[in-house]
Amino acid sequence: MSDFKRYTVTTALPYANGPVHIGHLAGVYVPADIYVRFLRKTGYDVLFIGGSDEHGVPITLKARQRGVSPQDVVDEYHGIIRDSFIDFGISFDIYSRTSLPLHHETAAAFFKKLHASGKLVEKETEQYYDEEAKQYLADRYITGTCPHCGYEKAYGDQCEKCGTSLSPMELIDPKSTLSGAAPIKKKTSHWYLPLDEYEPWLRQWILEGHKEWKSNVYGQCKSWIDQGLHPRAVTRDLNWGVKVPLPDSEDKVLYVWFDAPIGYISAARDWAQQTGKDWEPYWKDKESRLIHFIGKDNIVFHCIIFPAMLKAEGDYILPDNVPANEFLNLEGDKISTSRNWAVWLHEYLQEFPDQQDVLRYVLTANAPETKDNDFTWKDFQARNNNELVAILGNFIHRTLVLTHKYFEGVVPESTAADEKDEIYKSLAELKEKMEYSLHHFRFREALATYMDMARVGNKYLTDKEPWKLFKDNPEAVQGILHNALQIAAKLAVWGEVFLPFFSEKLSKMLNMEPVEWNAALNDILQPGHKIEPAEIIFNKIEDSAIEVQLAKLEKSKEENAAAEQTFEPIKDEITFDQFSALDLRVGQILEAEKVAKTKKLMKLLVDMGFEKRTIVSGVAEFFTPEDLIGKKVTVVANLGKRMLKGIESNGMILFAENPDGTLKLLAAADEAVNGGKVC
After folding, report:
1. Class of domain 576-665
2. From the CB of residue 662, how many other CB atoms can be counted at a distance below 10 Å?
3. Where are the chain's structural domains?
4. What is the pLDDT of residues 531-564, one digit of tens each?
5. Sign (positive/negative) of CA torsion 460, 463, 469, 473?
6. CB 597: neighbour CB atoms within 10 A?
7. Phi/psi of residue 570, each to 5°?
8. Which positions ≥6 away from 29 have C-beta within 8 Å?
9. Rounded Cα gap, residues 81 and 74, in angstroms
C-alpha cells in the first residue's frame, strides 16, 4: 500500500471530431483502466476521469465542411466515443465533456484567478486577418507554400508533407481557407502564460524531483527545459470555445490547450454534482495522488504546461506521475484517420462481437510502453488462438467440464494438501511480481505474469491427467480438481484488472461472490459449492476472419494510392502581365550538398551566366548531390531572398511534381546558355 489516501487518475481527452481507434486504446485507455481496476481491487479510493475535448479549430473546420454547427459535430462524436469506451469496459467514474456550461464556468474561473493575480501577461502581436470573412485566422485556417519543402498546401501550424512545425508567418503566399483571399497582418492582443518564469521551478521539480518517471517522459521534458521555455498564448481569436471572461473580449476564447486540461477538474465537479460527493479532496488534498495517462504527443502539455498552470493557480496538487506511452502502428504503417488506416473500435465490435477482452489482451501484450509497436492481424489471431484459447481458456474449460463429469458440478474435498501448498506458494510469488509491475506501470509485464498463473494451472492438469485416474483412484481426482478449481477462482479475481469480461463470465460459472484481492490467496470455493456448466469463453479465430480485415486495409491502401494519383486542379487564371513578372533563366548546378540536420533540403550553387547563386531547394529526398551536379535547370531569378536553416536562398529551381509526390528535374536543354531567358 502506498502513502496516498486517494488517487485521481485522468486519461487524455479524445478529440471529438472522429471515432476512437486501437491506437487510442493501446496508448492510453486500456493501461489506465488496468491501473484503476488494480487500485480499486486493492482497496484504494480512486476517481477515474475521462471526457471529450470539444473545442479547437479542427472541429470548426469539420463543421464548416458539413454545413452544421460545431456543437452538432461534437454531439455526434462524443456519443460514439463514450459508447466505445463503455463497450470496452473502460471503467470511468465520469466521462464528461468540455462543451458543458460547467466546464466553461470552471475554465473561465481558472483564467480569471490567474489574470487577477498577475500571473498572465498581455501582449499585442500581429496576426493574419481575413478582410472578406472579417475575422482573425487560426493557424489551420491558413494555407500556403511550405518554406522548407515547397509543398503548396501546408497549414499555418505544420506542413503535412515534410512534417515541419510552422508558424503562419513562415508560409509563402498564404491564403485564407475561409475566403481564399490573401490575409493581411493586423494587430491583436492576447494573454500569455510566462513559462520562462517557471523554468527554474520546473527544472527542480521534474529533473531533480521526478527521476523515477519513464525515460521517454523524462527525456522529452529535459529536452524542452534545456532548450529554454517561452511565454505561450492562452487565448486566441475564435468564436468556438470558452469565452475569455474579460471586458472587450467578445471574440476571444481560451486556447484549447489551456482549457482542455482544466476539463479534468470540471469533470470532477461534474461527477460530484451527479453523485453528491465532494470533488475537492481529489484535486486539493496533498494526500491525493494525481496520475495522467496520455500518449507521447501530450507529454509537454501534461508535464510542463499544465503543472505550470496549477502552480500559478496555487490550490491544486501536481501530477505525481505521467506514464505516457509511445505510438501503436498498424501493419507496419502509422495509424492515420485521414487515410482510414486504422481499426475503429465501433467497427471491431460489429465484426468480433463479445470479444472485447481479446483486443484488450493483445493491445496490452503488445503495448507501446517504451517504443512504438506494431499491431498486426496475424499476431492478433496468434495471441488469441495460442494463448487465450490454448492456455487460459483451455484450463478453465477442462477444469469445469471434469468437475461436472465426475462430481456433478460440486466442488470436491481437498485431498492433495501438499500439492495445494506448492501451487499456492507459486501463485503467491507470481502475484507479488504482478503487483510490482502494476504499481510501476509495466502492464505488459504484469499481463505476462498473469498468464504464467494460467500456465501453472494448465500444466498441473496436464501433468496429473485426472481423466486417467478416476476409475482406479477417485480420491486423487477429488484433490486435483479441488486445486484446479481454486486456481480458476484466483484467475477470476486477479484477471479482473486485465480481462473484465472474462472475469465476470468465469465468476458466474463458478457462482462466486466478489472476493478481495489479497483474500484470493486462500481457498475461495469450499467443498460442496455448486458451479455452473462450462461455457467456452474464448473462441478460435479462423483465417477467414483475418483475411476480411486484411482485405479492408488493402482496400484503404488502394483508395489512398488512387487519391494520390489524382492531379491537382489548375490554379486560378492569371493575366499575361502576371506571368511576365516572372523572370525565368537558365542555370547550371555547379555544386550540391545536403543541408545538415534536415531531411528535405539541398544547398545548390548555380551558375546563372551573369553571377553564381546559392539556392536552397527541398529535393534531398528525391535526388543525391551527384544526380544534380552539372545539370541545366530553370530558375525563377527574381524571387525574393529567404533564409532557410541559416542559409540565404536566392531564387527557386523548377521541378515537376508527379501525382504521387515524387519530383523530376525540369531541365533546360544542354545547348541553352547560362543566364538565358526562358520565354
Report:
1. mainly beta
2. 11
3. 6-109+255-325, 118-237, 346-521, 576-665
4. 999 999 999 999 999 999 999 999 988 887 776 5
5. negative
6. 7
7. -65, 140
8. 11, 20, 50, 85, 88, 90, 293
9. 10
